[in-house]
Amino acid sequence: MIMKVIFMGTPEFSVPILKSLISAHEVLGVVTQPDKQQGRGKKFVPPPVKVAAIENNIPVFQPEKIRNTDFLDDVEADVFVVAAYGQILSEKILNIPKLGCINVHASILPKYRGAAPIQWAIINGEKQTGVTIMHMDKGVDTGDMILKKYTGIAPGETAGSLSTKLSLMGAQAIIEALGQIENGAAAREKQDGNLSSYAKIITKEMALIDFKKPGKEVVNLVNGLIPWPVAYTFHNGAVLKIWGAELIEGYGDGVPGEVLDIVKNKGFVVKAGVAAVLITEVQALSSKRMGAPDYLRGHMIGVGTVL
Q: Given a cut of 90, is residue 286 above it in pLDDT?
């Protein structure tokens, strides 16, 4: 059966899920966040989901606060599908569709409920994650689970690359879950709240690297904050964003943040905790991303420099 669907989502993560629904069901409309001003010119930029919806001739709704609107009251949809929408739905909205509201969440629940499950899985050094398709309730990612799909987190995986992977998994999983709902076979597995953890929203303030922490934690922070907000340190009082870092062995004493070595064609080694990290890609303020060796050619960083 082809279901009538209202889709709610905002970032790039949500786009493959929307496209998957378009290919298999009838998407009546898309609800997404308002356009946001970006860049120095403060130009209004539409969210990726809006762009995808317009390309497919699907009506788009962008309420500032969905709780304060009633445009969905008369929608005759079988199901609402939500994937990284960015606003909490009221109980009234949850009760509108015939078959309920279904969420595509980028973690294996009940672990990493909340706004930033992908980033926190990497920052915390998890080896495995996945997507969970769940019935929504009035809590934050607390509803009964329908199905889960697992994947490993590869060494060097960034939040950006993992988001792409989980988005494609979610696009397949939501079609499978809707098929189960259609057949009356969808699971309702309760979450164990005792096993839950919360993935709080990522902020720019979190991105400052503390080189007193173990090297592995520094590398995880760098990877977990790509592509935004990007971990950073200071060099000569100016922000230096770190786009690439690897744990490296064989280095001894030094103070946290001290440059211990320059590795030809690779980058520079920085003391972190009792270990060290090799910085391989950086970005200075008002400059483009570049390999650390290129940065070294134009900036005075040597052994003994402290970041």
A: no
